[in-house]
Predict the 3D structure of the following.
Amino acid sequence: MRKSVLCFSRSYLAVLCPTLGEMDVNRDYYYIVQSDQEERTVTEKGGKVVMNISRLIKENIHSDNLKWEEPDDFRSLTDFNWSPVLSDRYLIEFSVKEREKIAAALFKGISELFNTHKFDFLLSEPVALFTTHVLYYFCLKNGTQPKFFNPCYFPGYFYFTNSISDRMPYSLNESRKEKLSNEVLEKINSFGMGIIEDKSGPSYHFQFLGKNKPNYFNQRKGSAPPITNTTFKVKLIQVVRVLRAFGYNKLFPILSDFQVAGSLSEHVFYLKCLIASKRGYDKLPVEYEKGALLYPLHYEPEASLLYYGLPYFNQIDLIEVILRMLPKGHVLYMKEHPNQFGALKAKKWLDLRKKYGNVKFIYGRESGRKLMKNVNSIVTINSTAGLDAAIIGKRVFVLGEVFYKKFPGIQAVNALNDLGLYLKNLRSDQHNENHFDGIINGLADIVRQSYPGNPGPSFDLYSEENLKNILFAIDSEFV
């Protein structure tokens, strides 16, 4: 009997998922889309849309009988002890009345969808959205297997997770745990050495972009990595995005795409980052500082904070706690995300720097690896910069959930107060340790449970080889 796959096809997945559906002769694909434009994109490829979220909201938002009530088993079943509504990056921007109406409409629509259809699998990104959360809930209620794409830290591989709050690979295919070839092991080792030498890294990092140049429209389709640059054209496009979000926000629910309407403050923040001056940042340390700690600032908003980083979703509150923990004479370096340079120019951060004399701000396009080499240790919620630092030989304190949490050289911090115990001896301890081989073995174990290919935005996303690799993974797991 043919298996059925429900795809949450928002953003670039409105192109990728129906492309895979066209290629897959063994399964039937159904699509949830965010907007009318995404529905047109899917149907043009022959896909069957079973839910248009914008249309669902428009048809239900004025219903007096609609009220959001969180099911009693929602948190226990999804193993997530926070409000699914308040954890959504867009719903939080609406009034209490509006957000609960939207939540109720979404819950009702997804409930009816699962009542009228039998889905064997859910395919999606693990994004911090109420819709994803509700889909996950109904998967667990109805025996549907959730499959979330996750890029592997080692480029060119990806894996599936089966939970909205777990970042570890989950595979039903035991053959994925077989030994890797010597060629792949050598490539992983070389990649690790490249981290130390600052010659290798993720494709979304500007330093490892290569000769190809992404543009906004290719990025929206997923055919270019989400790399931000500072050209006038990029700034102008961001102004247009702010104006678009403003229009949707003021005309909601006439324009019923609540995710665009709820993205106004997010897009204003992105624009402020783009136009922020490079002046006023601190310089990279030129030599090793024994009393220095590094915190790599997370990109905001993202699932790494809202789902995998709980309870530390508010970075400024966390940083203030760390600054109060640091002994006298110690310093905290904060470095912006390379694709969100300008973030530390926000008033809240500048006020923090005035308040405390032991914090320094590093511009996002400076070399994070050079900075790592001249500090004692790194503290992070769950940034992959933490794994970079561990490979370089630094001790890393991890506060959130991340795939490398149990690797050698990583100190998992289960309670924030425990971090203070570690930091009080920061200067007296030397934390330049060589855990390279153990970390590479841990990374190889992740790759062992992964598949060749990359379902994330990249220049090669729609290449024949990459699409075949993704489809091979689906054939292996969606059985």
Notes: The chain has a mean pLDDT of 91. The two ends are 11 Å apart (CA to CA).
